[in-house]
Design a protein that fits this description.
This protein is of the alpha/beta class. The protein folds into 2 domains: 71 residues, no CATH class; 105 residues, Trna Endonuclease, Chain: A, domain 1, CATH 3.40.1350. It is 36% helix and 22% strand. Strands 3-4-5-6-7 form a 5-stranded mixed sheet, with helices on both faces. A two-stranded antiparallel ribbon has the order 1-2. Helix 2 packs antiparallel against helix 4 and helix 4 packs across helix 6. The longest helix has 26 residues.
Length: 190
């Protein structure tokens, strides 16, 4: 049985999402990540389903310990999905952007790298590199990392590299400069 066929069916139904690195064609890419698309189902299969037996026995300590130690990571992954989804609806650096994707791979220096948000401007002149942070990450250091990484990426070419950060808990309030707040994301996604 071909394992890809059930994944293709789940993808067509919208239950599973296939992610490929920015700049690669879906039909040619061998680098693929599959994730559960719906946040509720992702929560169910990550936390509830593995703990059903314990919860039926009213043993809540272990499931709560798992939630407590991994909740920030789980919420962060959903925040990253929302950040990518918001990019075409936002004006960032005064430009409109196409659909955002993540990128992972090796840069021109041969080092492994990963970027949470990558999009091309609708006019084709610029590339947006963004990082999505839920916790207490240093926004300025992430911007500097992205700016340094930009010229080393295979898809940048002669395009201008612009950066932005989606700051979760540390970015409450209105968006400032190229730091985008949760309120701004939710406003454009409503």
């Amino acid at each position: 049985m071909n394992l890809l066929r059930p994944l293709e069916i789940l993808t067509e139904l919208g239950l599973v999402r296939r992610d490929i690195p920015f700049g690669e064609l879906a039909k040619n890419s061998k680098r693929t990540l599959y994730t559960i698309a719906d946040p509720f189902l992702r929560f169910w299969y990550r936390y509830v389903f593995p703990s059903l037996s314990a919860c039926e026995q009213e043993l809540y300590d272990q499931p709560m310990a798992v939630w407590t130690t991994t909740q920030s990571q789980h919420i962060g992954s959903i925040w990253e999905d929302l950040a990518r989804e918001s990019v075409p609806h936002l004006s960032i650096h005064g430009l409109r952007w196409g659909q955002a994707q993540r990128w992972w791979g090796k840069n021109s220096a041969g080092e492994a790298a990963e970027i949470g948000v990558v999009a091309e401007s609708l006019d084709g002149s610029s590339i947006l590199l963004g990082e999505v942070m839920w916790g207490n990450a240093a926004v300025d250091s992430e911007r500097k990392r992205l700016e340094g990484l930009g010229p080393l990426l295979p898809f940048v070419g002669k395009k201008r590299v612009l950066t932005a950060c989606w700051a979760g808990r540390t970015g409450s309030g209105a968006s400032r400069g190229n730091t985008i707040s949760p309120e701004s994301v939710l406003k454009v996604l409503r």
